[in-house]
Design goal:
NAD(P)-dependent_oxidoreduct, SDR family NAD(P)-dependent oxidoreductase, NAD(P)-bd_dom_sf, Rossmann fold, three-stranded mixed sheet, seven-stranded parallel sheet, 321 residues, Epimerase_deHydtase
């Protein structure tokens, strides 16, 4: 049987890296596009990834890298939230061009930014997408473009989940706001409030969910969307308590996130400006409904919370050896 090929854009990131690992475990050949492919190949020797020289902003590079691929994982985002408006849409257009040329299906990790408060608290695949943020509007535009492309034969799949956590994930609330990488956990800074639920997604679980959907290609629509339940923290205390258990610090101190600082720092720090924009996601509960996913898969891939957090904190260098 001929080995299937996947192109992963953003293989050095959290979801891209998790997808690359899962695909290789299933026997796929994984290609990754990078502007310094030789350096990445040397640094990751033995990983099994085939690095291709190129830039996700250059259509010809993406098209060439996707030749013969069955799927394109679009896991690439501008670093540090910079220049979203200028970079995000050209990159998805390049993936669409590559998918059209190769016949591949595009796999897009979705976010809850697409939804405004009119769709809260229970979010289904059919819920209205009326975002209240600039980033949310861009995400809606991305998915709208994929839906349009499906009418011309370009297939795509969107899998939406809550806030990511997992080993080797740099750009997330978990690693940027709650726990300090490289240090033993002695306290947690929590952005939400007690009594308000919050939804989380463990990256390896999301990658496995995507993989199982890919393996059911014949059951998917040309443009298809699924929601994950992931880990639901019903009152905003379960994630913090689990971090304490895993770190061997039960009852550790919980600090409040300094929301008051963001308006002051936002004009000077891009990340703070972007965090401030999505602060509403911590002030009210919202939950992705995964019933459609369960109808197709039967069950959702799910790692027990303490096990997932142990792998996450170990990967971040936060557990004592």
């Amino acid at each position: 049987m001929k080995q299937q090929i996947a192109l992963v854009l953003g293989a050095t990131g959290g979801i891209g890296g998790a997808m690359a690992k899962t695909l290789m475990q299933r026997g796929w050949q994984v290609r990754a596009l990078h502007r310094r492919a030789d350096q990445m190949a040397a640094a990751s020797r033995g990983s099994g990834i085939v690095w291709r020289q190129g830039d996700a902003m250059q259509e010809q590079d993406v098209v060439a890298a996707a030749a013969g691929a069955a799927i394109i994982v679009h896991g690439v985002n501008p670093p540090g939230y910079r220049n979203w408006a200028q970079l995000v849409m050209p990159m998805i257009e390049n993936s669409i061009a590559a998918a059209r040329a190769s016949g591949a299906r595009i796999i897009l990790p979705g976010t809850v930014y697409n939804y405004g408060t009119d769709a809260f608290p229970d979010l289904r695949e059919t819920s209205p997408q009326n975002p209240s943020t600039r980033k949310g509007a861009i995400r809606v535009q991305m998915e709208r473009r994929l839906r349009q492309a499906a009418q011309d034969g370009v297939r795509s799949l969107v899998v939406r989940a809550g806030d990511f956590f997992g080993p080797h994930l740099a750009n997330s609330w978990f690693s940027q706001g709650m726990v300090k990488p490289g240090r033993p956990v002695t306290a947690v800074t929590y952005p939400g409030q007690r009594g308000i639920g919050h939804q989380w997604a463990y990256l390896p679980d999301m990658a496995e969910t995507m993989m199982q959907l890919i393996e059911r290609e014949q059951s998917l629509a040309a443009f298809d969307t699924f929601h994950m339940n992931g880990h639901w923290d019903a009152d905003g205390t379960e994630m913090v308590a689990a971090i304490g258990r895993v770190a061997g610090q039960p009852g550790m101190k919980v600090k409040r996130f300094p929301w008051w600082l963001l308006p002051l720092a936002s004009p000077f720090v891009t990340v703070f400006r972007e965090l401030r924009e999505v602060s509403y996601l911590w002030r009210q509960p919202l939950r992705l409904d995964n019933r459609r996913l369960l109808q197709l898969l039967g069950s959702e891939p799910h790692t027990e919370l303490d096990v997932a957090l142990e792998a996450t904190l170990a990967g971040m260098g936060c557990l004592k050896k």
